[in-house]
Design goal:
The chain is an alpha/beta fold. The chain has two domains: 3-16 and 65-104 and 149-230, Rossmann fold (3-Layer(aba) Sandwich); 22-62 and 112-143, SIR2/SIRT2 'Small Domain' (2-Layer Sandwich). It contains nine helices and nine strands. The chain has helices at residues 11-14, 27-30, 33-36, 39-44, 46-60, 67-74, 91-95, 153-161, 214-230, and strands spanning 3-8, 80-85, 100-102, 105-112, 119-121, 139-143, 165-169, 191-194, 207-210. It has a six-stranded parallel sheet, with helices on both faces. A three-stranded antiparallel sheet has the order 5-4-6, with helices on one face. Strand 4 (105-112) and strand 5 form a beta hairpin. Helix 6 runs parallel beside helix 9. The radius of gyration is 18 Å and the shape is globular. The two termini are 14 Å apart. 38% of the residues are buried. The structure holds adenosine-5-diphosphoribose (APR). Adenosine-5-diphosphoribose (APR) binds next to helix 1.
């Protein structure tokens, strides 16, 4: 089976009602990430950070995957599909994607501040000060904050190297090492970039730009890829 690798960002969840980061109404337009998504912020004001992720987690329990997420699931009947996502929502999984690798963590998971191997899944939205791990240490969001290592990049690189086709959807490609995954995709593999603000960039080769939203662009792209594959 041919292998399709998808690199997704906040834009694929925008039509589910989840804000992106750098659009005009994005999270980093109304908040300073330095106050909310760094280890220093956690040390400085734990409650503010807990509240920020509690609000986003609360919303996640209220939204659904969209036709963009669901289109990617359709690919799995004809291709081996790996989703490498920068998103911390679980909408790819809830749409039915089987192979999802989160580079920046998962909003519904929390982990021990003492032993990072102790990771728990929350079945409700709130993480409070005083919620502790089995070893009695405060739990924190299982999110990769700015300045922290991205452990899953070492799994994502070999996946990118094996891509026969690459789909990039809903990401400004401004955050590394995630954006650097494109450098590992074989130059012979076509890249399809789905983003309403897609800008041609000289550094990307073999790219087809689809200036559409995930919901408008992905179903059409998936149909074309399946038709081309079945011939
Ligand atoms: N469909 C597809 N793409 C969209 C849509 C949509 N409906 N709406 C917006 N976009 C595009 C925007 O044009 C932009 O290129 O999605 C992209 C969103 O970019 P960012 O807000 O920068 O989000 P992302 O690229 O995922 O950010 C990467 O930055 O703050 C960190 O950890 C955070 O994972 C995040 C990382």
């Amino acid at each position: 089976m041919k292998r399709i690798v998808v690199l997704s960002g906040a834009g694929i969840s925008a039509e589910s009602g989840i804000k992106t980061f750098r659009d005009d109404d994005g999270l980093w337009r109304s908040h300073r990430f330095e106050d909310l998504a760094t280890p220093e912020a956690w040390e400085r004001n734990m409650q503010l950070v807990l509240d920020f992720y509690n609000e986003r987690r609360k919303q996640l329990f209220e939204v659904e995957p969209n036709e963009g997420h669901r289109a990617l699931v359709q690919l799995e009947s004809h291709f081996h599909v790996d989703i490498v996502t920068q998103n911390v929502d679980d909408l790819h999984e809830r749409a039915g994607s089987k192979n999802v690798l989160h580079l920046h963590g998962e909003l519904k998971k929390v982990r021990s501040t003492k032993n990072p191997d102790l990771v728990y899944t929350l079945d409700q939205w709130e993480l409070k000060k005083g919620d502790t791990c089995a070893e009695g240490a405060q739990l924190r969001p299982h999110i990769v904050w700015f300045g922290e290592a991205v452990p899953n990049i070492s799994k994502a690189i070999p996946i990118a190297r094996k891509a026969d086709i690459m789909i990039v959807v809903g990401t400004s490609l401004q955050v590394y090492p995630a954006a650097g995954l494109l450098d590992y995709v074989p130059s012979s593999s076509p890249v399809f970039l789905v983003d309403p603000k897609a800008m041609a960039s000289s550094y990307l080769t073999n790219v087809t730009y689809i200036k559409k939203t995930a919901v408008n662009g992905l179903p059409e792209l998936v149909r074309e890829l399946i038709n081309a594959h079945s011939q």
